[in-house]
């Protein structure tokens, strides 16, 4: 069985259709999910948005947020996730932005966000994780982390005042 099969099963069982909004992972989240049998039933679309202009134009990330918090920030990831949720028919979105290869402290730092409608209102959760390794190792770890976090993210979105 594929390591990510439980993610597909969870999405199916909860009638959730996923879209991704990826910067640092450049489509790896969607690609890794697509490797799993049955994933076509739970995938809507994927945005790959490296450039600032793409984040702004395709997902509605505000320039003010980028200027104030930087491209590698939970705030940008949150706006990416909410923009994807607004722009497509998915019921849940995963987004990330970060630096898989950088000099200094931010090397390997990725910001993740997950958004979905709860009682008709958009909600979003986010987190920042630092991964060890070379560029593509970081990207692979990040894609897996995002997918393996779906159930935890959904629990946080549905019950924001409980510890998860």
TrEMBL record:
Where is the CinA C-terminal domain positioned along the sequence?
7-153
The organism is Halopseudomonas formosensis
Entry protein name: CinA family protein
Question: Which Gene3D superfamilies does this one have?
Answer: CinA-like (3.90.950.20)
Q: Which domain of life is it from?
A: Bacteria
**Taxonomic path:** Bacteria, Pseudomonadati, Pseudomonadota, Gammaproteobacteria, Pseudomonadales
- Spell out the NCBIfam families in the cross-references: PncC_domain (TIGR00199)
Task: Write down the Pfam families for this protein, in alphabetical order.
Answer: CinA
Q: Which residues does UniProt call coiled coil?
A: none
